[in-house]
Amino acid sequence: MQQRKIEVCLTPALLPLYNIENSIVIVIDIFRATSSICYGIENGAEAIIPVATVEECLSLKDDICLLAAERDGKVVEGFDFGNSPFSYTTEKVKGKTIVLTTTNGTHAIDESKKTAYEVIIGSFLNVDAICNYLKTQNKDVFLLCAGWKNKFNLEDTLFAGAVVSRLKDQHYFQDDASTAAEDLYELAKHDLGAYTAKTSHSERLKLLGIEEDIKFCLQENITQSIPILRGNKLVKM
To answer: N or C: lower Cβ tally within 10 Å for the chain?
Structure first.
């Protein structure tokens, strides 16, 4: 059997350089889109439909769907909510379909779904569930960091490193980006809050007064659900 590989793509801008047809792609946008998606699916959302643009989000408006839009950390005016995990509570999302667009996370989903074998959503909230699933699959692992507007960011790379660290005993072939991500995670894992305090996105969110979102998104294993892309919808696996 051919050895499986694990790769980390540090930004969606690099995605065209990879072949992901045999890969399970884990899309990562820790602050905050994929954390909110994981929390929403855990709390009973029927489906979350990720779209690339605000206009597309608006075009899907009906009496059933909730509309969620975020740009530059802020809720877009006229929408039900943005991508704060505190908007994805059971009371708000259970049984609902949510159409979501964000600055980075939904862009990464949109780009990866074109050629990936499978697309799932990862966050610290469900990190062990993600890793346990990957261990059962005879597929390559591709960790796609959403970054910030197609640029590298630290928090998504740390999560990628957390996954690489947990899969070490599976003897994947690691690329250099995976090794670098793992090394960063090993530096940071004992106090993720302190390490990510230096990130540019953390500073953006603090200026918006939403530090609690940051703390929430760094919690490990408070959900067990794995959101998976089926057609154009993220649903519970």
So the answer is: N
How high is the pLDDT of residue 231?
95
Residue 209: which pLDDT band, with cuts at 50, 70 and 90? low
Beta strands across the sheet bearing 47-50: 74-75, 65-71, 97-101, 47-50, 233-236, 227-230, 118-122, 23-28, 140-145, 5-9, 173-174
- Six-digit token pair at 3? 């050895």
Categorize the per-residue pLDDT at 201 as very low, low, confident or very high, splitting at 50, 70 and 90: low
The pair of three-digit structure tokens given for residue 45, joined into one six-digit string: 């959302």
Secondary structure, 3-state, 9-44 = ECCHHHHHHCCCCCEEEEEECCCCHHHHHHHHHHCC
Its pTM stands at 0.93
Query: Which two tokens mark 84?
Result: 């704060």
User: Which stretch of DSSP H or E encloses residue 191?
Assistant: none
Evaluate the CA torsion angle 45, 193, 72, 87 in order and state its sign: positive
Q: SS3 for 229? A: strand
Taking only the tens place, the pLDDT of each residue in 180-195 is 999 999 999 999 989 9
Instruction: Give the chain's end-to-end CA distance (angstroms, integer).
Output: 27
Rounded distance, CA 42 to CA 228, Å?
12
Q: Please state whether the peptide bond connecting residue 32 to the residue before it is cis, i.e. omega within 30 degrees of 0.
A: yes
